[in-house]
Amino acid sequence: MNPPDPAASALSAEDARALARQHGLTSLAQRPTLRAYLGQLWSRRQFIMTLSAAQSAAKYEGNRLGQLWALFNPALLIVSYFLVFGVLLRTSRGIDNFVLFLSIGVVLFGVAATVITSGARAISSNLGLVRALRFPRAALPISATLTELITSWPAFALLLLLVPITGEPITWHAALFPAAIGLQMLQLTGMALIAARLVDVSRDLANLIPTVLRLLRYTSGVFFSIAVFAAAFPPVVEALLAYQPFALQLTLGRQALMQEVPLDGGPWLASVVWTVVLLVGGMIVFWRGEGSYGRG
User: Fold this and answer.
1) Distance CA 122, CA 145 (A)
2) Structural domain span for residue 85
3) Cα separations (Å) of 197 from 3, 55, 100, 194, 290?
4) DSSP 126
5) Cα gap 290→32, rounded to integer Å
6) Is residue 145 part of a domain?
7) Cα–Cα distance between 69 and 62 in angstroms, integer?
């Protein structure tokens, strides 16, 4: 008896696709619907939390002082920036409690810069994981945000401690601080998703991120009052600077913890709008690239 001809017994491409659909198999390059994708992310929430906690714990594990550096680093940055901007450049004009004003700016913008930087490289720095396992890739930039949230709690505690130390009265406004952090993290999640997609398309874009963040650091009111320094420019300039998302993140934190920055619903409403735009837009932008990540 002659052996069967392999070519004759092989399935056609159409039959193979039909057989795969029958058994619930899909192509690795196939993008699920957005609704299904969000469902996959939710089902992997434990994986995202575990990955975030592990990355946070590993951040300082090679140092003798360990996680204490999560407190020392922002404290040293605050002192350094105070000497440069508060003492030498005197950008403190118009601000009574410059120490707390600066501290909030340094900590919150530092969180933003770290999330965007690590989020942008979330795919490229985890290619082994991306190529070995099948999971919604948005888990990686989302994990970058959660990792920084977990790592930054000592810095947030430092800000709360500085409130009475710098002479600020403790009011009910302080209860809004977690809400300010929550809005910031949601916005940063959207930004991390967009940055991760862009860097996956072109690795060269990762080299531009430090420059963009440096520009934002000096135009978001980290070291100075936007209202004071923009007074010489048309009102539209002040509005553009004050209502971009990074400046709003700092404003919300200051309104929650500083009496001299009065509570105003305008920045909170604008921040909510930015949160929706960035989170929804970021998820859609990233989802549209699902199936192509890690193949470059």
Assistant:
1) 10
2) 34-287
3) 51, 21, 36, 5, 9
4) G
5) 8
6) yes
7) 11
Amino acid at 19: L
Cα distances (angstroms) measured from residue 106 to each of 18, 101, 113, 210, 226: 57, 9, 10, 16, 15
Is 224:253 a contact under the CB 8 Å cutoff?
Answer: no
Q: What is the CA radius of gyration of the chain?
A: 24
Distance, CA of 180 to CA of 267 (rounded, Å): 11
The answer to whether 250 and 184 are in contact (CB under 8 A) is no
Q: Is residue 19 part of a domain?
A: no
Distance CA 263, CA 150 (A): 27
Residue position matching structure tokens 């000592």 = 154
Q: 84-133: per-residue pLDDT in tens?
A: 999 999 989 889 999 999 999 999 999 999 999 999 999 999 988 888 88
> How many domains does the chain contain in total?
1
- The rounded Cα 147 to chain-centroid distance in angstroms is 10
Q: Which two tokens stand for residue 169?
A: 């009265």
Contact 285, 213 (CB under 8 A): no
- Structural domain includes residue 29: no
Quickly tell me which residue has 């959207």 as its tokens. 190
Distance (Å, whole) CA 272 – CA 3: 69
Give the number of residues written for the chain: 296
Tokens read off for 113? 């810069």
Specify whether the CB–CB gap between 103 and 162 falls below 8 A.
Answer: yes
Query: Does residue 3 lie within any of the structural domains?
Result: no
- Specify whether the CB–CB gap between 199 and 206 falls below 8 A: yes
pTM of the model: 0.89
230-286 residue pLDDT tens: 888 899 999 999 999 999 999 999 999 999 999 999 999 999 999 999 999 999 999
